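Table S2 (continued). Query chain:
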Amino acid sequence: TWKQWVLLNPYRVIKYNLNNMSGDMDIALAYDPRMATPKNLWDASKDLIGHHRGKGLTAEFQRAVKLGVIDSGLTASEIPDISKSGFFKAITGSKPGLLLKYWHNVKNFTQWRENILRLTAYRYFQKKIDSGEKSVYGASKPAEVDAIKNRDEKAAKLARELIGDYGNISEAGQWVRKH
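Corresponding output:
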């Protein structure tokens, strides 16, 4: 509850999202400025709107979710449903009020924003692999990448590890996150 308040309260949500976005963008641009072109980011943002509004998953999104590209950022991993935790559980009750609507909208926006760059990176690495480029490693270990034969799995690993794989934590790390 405290972490959610610190990150997403009305006084900090814009600053948090700008800082987080600039950090993610920094690594993408450092790796290859052509990855995060305005067109690539715009295409991913448009395509993700339907996904985040619950209008079904395309085959591409089903693969991306299954492979941990979409919905695997910090928001999905470390910020649970606010109505089920701590102080907010006591005050939200069964009817969603203004406070609960705020938290859901802010969390969904933040998750959408995180997913834009993740999907952009995934598509970028798919294109690099399809073009036959041999040494596409992103921020991953070359031996691990070379061991993956499936194009989508390889692109997903590269995208997750370049932008930040919040879902890849040890059992001990998961315990620390929960407690």
